[in-house]
């Protein structure tokens, strides 16, 4: 008997010591010159700039490709040239002329020309993937492209739009990642069955930006190598590796261990936890994403203006921001995020039970009512929804939460089968029209409409506001245009079925010796090239 | 002459059995495909969304809807799918933009490596522990085994994983962190089998081997722990039953050493059910290690299938499920064969 106990103990000890003997000498810090990030990147489905429209994919594309134009990250109102050296709009407001920067080269060594820029726009429009509408809204289609977007010589690009709009609106659309300029010579050699090289560009790059795509392993990592010949100066690091680490707690562990240089998806708990660690620094930047509740107007109770107002007053914004979102979001109650032209930064709503009860009584629901909310079953949506449930209950509004996975709740939302939906909306480009269009335009409230904006999704029929919002895009004087948006937002804030609650703050934690990551205002301008360690 | 005819008869019988087996396997796989396919189609998730994203215009949406053949009747969709599969075409994954076959080849070895190592730990510790617990019923070792087993059963894998990381990775620095390798060792070894330990040995890269091992040991131990809990409990109950049998008493009367009785006779007699238990546990680890894979950022098939399911990426789900199903069948076959080896009566 004793012998067998020994065998058992022996086996276990041998196993454990073998394990640790083997692992004794393994710890390797991140290599010098290589920046390693821990981030959730499982949303990437393609790294083709004409297709990629997810947060992580756009970030990678933003570091690999150059566009014609970009903007100052500290002051979005300043538009800067990237591939374009200068640009101008003709008197008629229709014809735009761009001069291409001289001496620029693609990673392949091919020179960057106006033909590449024209090809890239043709390609994005004709491929017709998700972000194509950003360019298509200027009236480009397969029949008129050759005439509308052309390169008379290697340095000149001429684009003619279908109607005069605020020039900044057009320029901001050209700063979106869908307008990235691809190496047309290289891409044309990779075309298969007229796919404009889409299959190839999903996992490879043909660009002129600061980095070359070395590899993308879906759900695992992507690796970028610095491009030696970058026109704006070579990146300050040799390589960036972004690893998919789903768990915020794990990201924090890896950061504190020195296995990664940046943790990108920390939540409130980790941020508070890191406060005591002196060797870790938090960078943050205000992003355009808004967290809001959408109240479906097909529900007759939610369609009453007093009920909508009351529900806005029943959210305890301050407490949610402090206790649930701390450091990751800030209260913001209008549809244009801070930083955008014409953004309304008033937050008129706060928790006001008495006033809300009064409004509910006026609407004929003095004892409240029952309603459901579809909630993505992940932090922080579930937590925020629970807080809303608790504060609404104080006025007798019984909110039943229906948890689901993100795609599931979204499917229901898109089909207008919800009562209330809680979610985020991120702007597609830096012009106010992007959010104004979705929150304040609904031209056809029928189920079969072509344009399914957020206003449509919540069955909010608003012909007058839609007209006004559409007119705003044609106003060419920026000051007047900003004023129109301010007016629309005020009206929207008071009457819309949207409870806009919070604007996102992006946080990146890193050791003190690692510096230089730029968190831009949009998800596609988080830039790696200035990072040193 | 007569021997020849006899052997050809046996051959024919063997061939018939093999054919029957193959048909059974094919039918099982087809059934699996059918069920998964229809579950996928009635799920309240819109598969088009996975392709076009949240912001697509109606035209883009409609084009994708058509491209996915969702406008055709269900039976037609299934027929298209099955005919494609028979030609070895499992379609492309929406999430990874690659053919499913390539994805499976990439993700499955990672799971295989983890599950095999986990099961190995489970067996090496679980079987002796179970035997000891049975031999010393009610004594301290039995209590320990029971406690360890209970903990392995009830502690969430997720929590165990995070605690393991906190202690052995963050505090003690004994093991590597999440992922299969440190960044410094990425891409140093060309994938041959996909199992990193083997590939590293084939390439003669010992540093990569140790690094990969240091990353593997903790998730494998976490998985192995739950597997060990199950195996030790089952071993104990099989052994308790055996030790009550008359042949054990006979052996004792004959003066055989306790060691031979327990480890030779009794253990030999529970080999068949034990193999089943181990195989079941192995199969469970192969398909069910999603949480471990998430905590340890382990790019395996479990998290691949789950993510695909949540995104309604049905081709990927079907492909992945088929692989898991086929593995089950293979494991079953392997068990059957093993029975015959360890227990001649099974023939």
UniProtKB/TrEMBL annotation, chain A:
**GO biological process terms held by the UniProt record:** peptide transport
Q: Which PROSITE patterns match?
A: SBP_BACTERIAL_5 (PS01040)
Is this entry keyworded Signal? Answer: yes
Its cellular-component GO annotations read: ATP-binding cassette (ABC) transporter complex; outer membrane-bounded periplasmic space
Subcellular location(s) of the protein: Periplasm
One GO MF term:
peptide transmembrane transporter activity
Coiled-coil region list: none
What CDD domains does the record point to?
A: PBP2_NikA_DppA_OppA_like_7
Tell me the leader sequence span.
1-28
Q: Which superkingdom, per the lineage?
A: Bacteria
Keyword annotations for this protein?
Signal
Q: Where is the Solute-binding protein family domain?
A: 78-442
- Please name the PANTHER family in this protein's record: ABC TRANSPORTER, PERIPLASMIC OLIGO-PEPTIDE BINDING PROTEIN, PUTATIVE-RELATED, PERIPLASMIC BINDING COMPONENT OF ABC TRANSPORTER
The similarity annotation says: Belongs to the bacterial solute-binding protein 5 family.
Q: What is this protein called?
A: ABC transporter substrate-binding protein
TrEMBL record, chain B:
Q: Which InterPro entries match?
A: BPD_transp_1_N, MetI-like, MetI-like_sf
> What region holds the ABC transmembrane type-1 domain?
108-339
Where does the chain cross the membrane? 21-39, 114-135, 147-170, 212-231, 262-283, 316-339
- List cellular component terms (GO): plasma membrane
- Topology of the protein relative to the lipid bilayer: Multi-pass membrane protein
Single GO molecular function = dipeptide transmembrane transporter activity
The principal localisation class reads: membrane
Where it sits in the cell: the answer is: Cell membrane
Which keywords are on file for this protein?
Cell membrane, Membrane, Transmembrane, Transmembrane helix, Transport
The highest taxon in the source lineage is Bacteria
Q: Name one Pfam family in it.
A: BPD_transp_1
Protein family according to the UniProt entry: Belongs to the binding-protein-dependent transport system permease family.
Name of this protein: Peptide ABC transporter permease
Species of origin: Elstera cyanobacteriorum
């Amino acid at each position: 008997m004793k012998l067998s106990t020994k065998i058992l103990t022996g086996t276990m000890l041998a196993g454990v010591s073998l394990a640790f003997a083997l692992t004794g000498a393994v710890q390797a810090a991140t290599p010098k010159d290589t920046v390693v990030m821990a981030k959730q990147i499982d949303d990437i489905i393609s790294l083709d700039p004409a297709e990629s429209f997810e947060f992580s994919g756009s970030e990678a594309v933003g570091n690999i490709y150059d566009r014609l134009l970009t903007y100052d990250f500290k002051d979005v109102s300043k538009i800067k040239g990237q591939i374009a050296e200068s640009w101008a709009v003709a008197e008629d407001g229709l014809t735009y002329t761009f001069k291409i920067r001289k001496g620029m080269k693609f990673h392949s060594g091919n020179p960057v020309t106006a033909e590449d820029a024209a090809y890239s726009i043709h390609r994005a429009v004709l491929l017709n993937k998700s972000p194509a509408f950003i360019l298509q809204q200027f009236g480009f289609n397969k029949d008129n492209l050759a005439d509308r977007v052309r390169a008379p010589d290697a340095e000149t690009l001429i684009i003619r739009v279908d109607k005069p709009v605020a020039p900044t609106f057009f320029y901001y659309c050209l700063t979106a990642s869908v307008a990235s300029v691809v190496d047309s010579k290289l891409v044309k050699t990779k075309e298969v069955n007229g796919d404009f090289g889409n299959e190839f560009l999903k996992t490879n790059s043909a660009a002129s930006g600061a980095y070359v795509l070395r590899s993308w392993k879906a759900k695992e990592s992507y690796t970028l190598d610095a491009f030696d010949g970058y026109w704006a100066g070579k990146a300050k690091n040799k390589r960036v590796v972004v690893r998919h680490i789903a768990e915020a707690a794990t990201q924090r562990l890896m950061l504190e261990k020195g296995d990664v240089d940046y943790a990108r998806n920390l939540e409130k708990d980790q941020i508070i936890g890191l406060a005591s660690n002196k060797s870790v620094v938090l960078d943050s930047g205000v992003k355009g994403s808004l967290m809001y509740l959408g109240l479906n107007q097909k529900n007759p109770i939610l369609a009453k203006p007093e009920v909508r107002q009351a529900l806005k007053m029943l959210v305890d914004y301050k407490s949610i921001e402090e206790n649930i979102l701390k450091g990751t979001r800030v209260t913001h109650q209008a549809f244009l995020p801070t930083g955008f032209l014409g953004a309304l930064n008033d937050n008129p709503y706060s928790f006001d039970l008495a006033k809300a009860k009064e409004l509910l009584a006026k609407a004929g629901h003095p004892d409240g009512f029952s309603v459901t909310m579809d909630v993505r079953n992940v932090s922080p949506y579930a937590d925020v929804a629970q807080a809303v449930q608790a504060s609404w209950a104080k006025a007798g509004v019984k909110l039943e939460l229906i948890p689901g996975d993100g795609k599931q709740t979204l499917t229901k939302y898109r089909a207008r089968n919800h009562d209330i939906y809680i979610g985020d909306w991120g702007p597609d480009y830096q012009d106010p029209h992007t959010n104004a269009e979705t929150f304040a335009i609904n031209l056809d409230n029928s189920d079969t409409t072509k344009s399914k904006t957020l206003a449509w999704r919540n069955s909010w029929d608003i012909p007058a506001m839609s007209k006004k919002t559409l007119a705003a895009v044609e106003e060419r004087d920026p000051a007047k245009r900003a004023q129109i948006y301010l007016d629309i937002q005020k009206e929207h804030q008071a009457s819309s079925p949207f409870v806009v609650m919070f604007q996102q703050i992006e946080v990146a934690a890193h050791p003190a010796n690692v510096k230089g990551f730029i968190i831009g205002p949009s998800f596609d301008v988080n830039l790696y090239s200035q990072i040193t360690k | 002459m007569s021997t020849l005819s006899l052997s050809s008869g046996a051959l024919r019988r063997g061939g018939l059995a093999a054919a029957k087996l193959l048909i059974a396997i094919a039918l099982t796989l087809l059934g699996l495909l059918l069920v998964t396919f229809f579950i996928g189609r009635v799920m309240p998730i819109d598969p088009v969304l996975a392709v076009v994203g949240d912001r697509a215009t109606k035209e883009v949406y409609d084009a994708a809807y058509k491209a996915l053949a969702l406008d055709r009747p269900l039976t037609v969709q299934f027929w298209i799918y099955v005919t494609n599969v028979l030609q070895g075409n499992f379609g492309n994954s929406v999430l990874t933009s690659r053919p499913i076959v390539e994805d499976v080849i990439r993700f499955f070895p990672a799971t295989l490596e983890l599950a095999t190592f986990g099961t190995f730990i489970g067996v090496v510790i679980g079987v002796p522990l179970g035997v000891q617990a049975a031999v010393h019923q009610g004594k301290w070792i039995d209590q320990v085994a029971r406690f360890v087993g209970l903990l392995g059963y009830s502690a969430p894998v997720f929590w165990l994983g995070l605690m393991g990381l906190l202690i052995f990775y963050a505090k003690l620095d004994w093991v590597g962190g999440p992922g299969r390798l440190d960044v410094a060792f990425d891409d140093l070894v060309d994938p041959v089998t996909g199992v990193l330990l083997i590939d590293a040995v084939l390439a003669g890269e010992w540093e990569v081997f140790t690094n990969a091992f240091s990353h593997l040991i903790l998730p494998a131990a976490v998985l192995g722990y739950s597997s060990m809990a199950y195996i030790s409990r089952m071993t104990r109950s099989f052994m308790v039953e055996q030790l009550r049998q008359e042949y054990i008493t006979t052996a004792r009367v004959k003066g055989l050493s306790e060691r031979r009785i327990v480890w030779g006779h009794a253990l030999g007699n529970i080999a068949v059910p034990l193999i089943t238990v181990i195989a079941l546990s192995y199969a469970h680890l192969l398909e069910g290690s999603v949480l471990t894979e998430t905590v340890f950022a382990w790019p395996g098939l479990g998290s691949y299938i789950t993510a695909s399911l949540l995104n309604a990426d049905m081709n990927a789900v079907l492909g992945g499920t088929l692989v898991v199903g086929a593995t089950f069948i293979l494991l079953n076959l392997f068990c059957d064969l093993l029975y015959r080896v360890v227990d001649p009566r099974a023939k």
